[in-house]
Specification:
By secondary structure, this protein is of the alpha+beta class. The protein has 2 domains: 104 residues, Phosphorylase Kinase, domain 1, CATH 3.30.200; 212 residues, Aminoglycoside 3'-phosphotransferase, Chain: A, domain 2 (Alpha-Beta Complex). 47% of the residues lie in helices and 13% in strands. The protein has a 5-stranded antiparallel β-sheet, with helices on both faces. β4 and β5 form a beta hairpin. α3 packs across α9 and α10 packs antiparallel against α12. The radius of gyration is 20 Å and the shape is globular. The two termini are 32 Å apart.
């Protein structure tokens, strides 16, 4: 569960000063409770009255600095490469500081609404409104830019060791639902696929492709926002991440079918990578739901009693996907 607010009390003056210096007018008054722990985000208008977003890092940890600097640079690169044809639907970078402390960025405000949120997943009412063509085009062009980004930004690649650490950290949440043997089997499957995880991590990956980071625009086109976790990973990572946010099975299949038919060169390799990503990501996503309960070690009953109906649906998607990944079943 994100921790809101307490660290922001001492930074209000600094944020207001920077917004004023940039000639921006905040849309809202400062509210420390509505901003995440890593950065402060404020809708503003520029001198011409155009809507923009001001984003400023509020944490002072080394990792946070590097992640946010990467986000600034990837937005710069996307805007540089696609400002004319607009193939990749990301907010246009306007200005920012990736070299000094504190880092800040101003980018285009995208008209539309979020497709869902991190805790409840994709809103069912939005399923028919999402243009899969637009989403796939965004992912396709993101992948095409991978070589360029490696040269200009030096994105970090997630290797097997990262998968291992993440799985070991989060797999304890599976205990109310799976046996120790099944959880161990998940780790053994990942362990046996070290090589493919380390050799196929060459693709730009958003890293946090949940519905809250997908903006549905006019004509149901999709804009992808919040590139804080951008890194290099395998081609199936983002699609597996998004898959676990979808509780509607028909839409799950549509996403997978379209991705495989349009963007996958080696289908057998894709399904192997998809399976490994599900094993890696499902415990992490369930951990997020556990944190939402404010219970350190919840039992099965805690989940079903304290989650919203949408949260329960998301939990069940993750559990089912993990079980299929353990068994090696086809997902379609």
């Amino acid at each position: 569960m994100p921790k809101y607010g307490p660290h922001l009390k001492g930074i209000e003056k600094e944020i207001h000063s920077k917004i004023s210096e940039l000639g921006l007018v905040p849309k809202y008054v400062f509210d420390e409770k509505k901003h995440q722990e890593r950065f402060y985000t404020e809708p503003c208008r520029d001198a011409k009255g155009k809507k923009v977003i001001f984003k400023m890092r509020t944490e002072n940890f080394g990792e946070t600095k590097e992640y946010f600097r990467r986000e600034i640079r990837i937005n710069q690169l996307f805007t540089k490469c696609y400002k004319e044809d607009g193939k990749l639907s990301v907010p246009k970078f306007i200005k920012g500081d990736a070299e000094h402390i504190p880092e800040w960025m101003v980018y285009e405000f995208i008209e539309g609404h979020e497709a869902g949120d991190f805790y409840n997943g994709l809103e069912s009412d939005n399923i028919e409104r999402i243009s899969l063509e637009s989403l796939m085009k965004g992912i396709e062009n993101m992948h095409r830019m991978s070589a360029l980004a490696q040269g200009e930004i030096k994105l970090v690649a997630e290797k097997y060791e990262n998968f291992k650490v993440a799985y070991q950290k989060n797999s304890k949440v599976l205990k109310p639902f799976f046996t120790e043997k099944e959880i161990k089997t998940g780790f053994e499957i990942l362990e046996s696929r070290k090589r493919i995880l380390d050799t196929k991590n060459k693709t730009i990956t958003h890293g946090d492709l949940h519905p809250g980071n997908l903006i549905i625009k006019k004509k149901n086109d999709i804009a992808i926002i919040d590139w804080y976790y951008v890194h290099l990973n395998n081609v199936a990572f983002d699609i597996a991440f998004f898959f676990l946010e979808i509780s509607d099975k028909k839409f799950q299949n549509k996403v997978l079918e379209k991705f495989v038919s349009e963007l996958v060169d080696d289908e057998n390799e894709f399904w192997q990578l998809f399976r490994l990503n599900i094993l890696r990501l499902a415990p992490q996503k369930i951990s997020v739901l556990r944190d939402a309960l404010y219970v350190a070690e919840p039992v099965k009953e805690d989940y079903y009693a304290k989650l919203t109906p949408k949260g329960v649906a998301k939990l069940e998607v993750n559990l089912e996907a993990f079980q299929k990944a353990l068994l090696g079943n086809d997902f379609l």
